[in-house]
Amino acid sequence: MPKSILVPPGTTTPIAPFVPGTLADGVVYVSGTLPFDGDNNVVHVGDAAAQTRHVLETIKKVIETAGGCMADVTFNSIFITDWSNYAAVNQVYADYFPGDKPARYCIQCGLVKPDALIEIASVAHIGKAEV
Predict the structure, then answer these.
(1) Residue 80 has what pLDDT?
(2) Among residues 53, 54, 50, 5, which one has the least CA distance to residue 30?
């Protein structure tokens, strides 16, 4: 099965060997997304809500590059560094998924950069041919 690499305009080089997303057979797989700026520095240090919004906007760009939208997201893997940020994350998350919610899980863990409070990876079914 062929796959297409998804790199939205303006995307910086990742800090590890991966791409922002791939499209295969109408399914978009978005890599774990951290709240990074153009230089791979963490943005909105100490603000879980703002970091969540930044991450979801980045994910949205990857899905839109494939021709989809956030309503196409079927699954999210959410990683947070502290359960005390859970409510702030969920408040922003609900703004991006106002209708039927995707399946998901959320775990507490350490992330690659200490100032990052959240990371999200997504799967979206857009049902379109390769780009």
Answers:
(1) 98
(2) 5
